[in-house]
Design brief:
By secondary structure, the chain is of the alpha+beta class. The chain has three helices and ten strands; from the N terminus they run βααβαββββββββ.
């Protein structure tokens, strides 16, 4: 879900950690189109901010939810089970380096694979499902604010990116690993049984320096497919996030 969910951007001046030796590090981002899982915040139209370590979440600067309509009728996937569709999806995204190496044609193939799975989704109310709880690894996204492909590779998040969710307490956390180890936590507000609004509260630079969110870090995330091992989410800016379960027992700090 949301966070719907990671996922490096520069902090606004008022969030810069002074003369601390880590101040020159890129700050964590949270899945957002304009840079975010994730997991760019405040006024994303003009500033890059932390929306989640590498952005598993899209931040909403337009306030407009873009409805995703499937153009793949159910008969195209009828007779195919989720297992075979997931194997096809994994094979497609495997060589794409979390989406950083994806061509437009690759993105189209992944989109088609994802829609086929969405068509056979059996969890109609994911926010009420215990399958949502735990730590998820981001394995593919279309979000440039997460991928940061315009930067040299050594300035991008090169380690794994995680997003954790507590469905019962409506808490989320995005986590970058190597080389920056940035984190962000957020409160979730249920909009319906599939979609949440995301309100970020704390960022941690290098996993150590806590910075309170200025209050403008917000986004939305919709969960369009969920089972015990795979989650597909879509941000309010149209980005696609695909995650796999790595630790169902993990709990987001309160």
């Amino acid at each position: 879900m949301a966070l719907a969910p990671s996922f490096s951007a520069t902090l606004p001046n008022k969030l810069r950690p002074g003369k601390h030796s880590l101040a020159s590090q890129p700050a964590p981002v949270i899945f957002h189109e304009k840079s975010p899982l994730s997991f760019p915040i405040p006024n994303t139209a003009s500033t890059h901010v932390i929306v989640s370590p590498s952005k598993l979440l899209d931040t909403a600067d337009s306030g407009i939810w873009r409805t995703r309509i499937s153009f793949f009728p159910g008969f195209l996937t009828k007779g195919r089970d989720a297992k075979s569709l997931k194997e096809e999806l994994y094979a497609t995204i495997g060589p794409l380096d979390r989406g950083a190496e994806a061509t437009p044609e690759d993105q189209q193939r992944v989109e088609q694979n994802a829609r086929k799975l969405e068509d056979v989704n059996e969890i109609k109310e994911p926010l009420k499902s215990n399958l949502l709880n735990g730590k998820w690894e981001l394995i593919y996204t279309t979000s440039q604010s997460v991928l940061q492909t315009q930067r040299p590779k050594f300035l991008r998040p090169n380690g794994k990116i995680y997003q954790a969710i507590n469905a019962d307490t409506l808490r989320a956390q995005n986590m970058e690993t190597w080389p920056f180890f940035n984190q962000v936590t957020a409160n979730l507000v249920s909009l319906n049984s599939r979609r949440v609004a995301v309100k970020f509260d704390f960022f941690r630079i290098a996993g150590l320096i806590p910075i309170k969110s200025p209050g403008s870090g917000r986004g939305q995330l919709e969960i369009t497919y969920l089972d015990e091992e795979l989650r597909i989410s879509r941000g309010d800016k149209g980005n696609l996030f695909i995650l796999k379960m790595v630790d169902a027992s993990y709990r987001v700090p309160l």
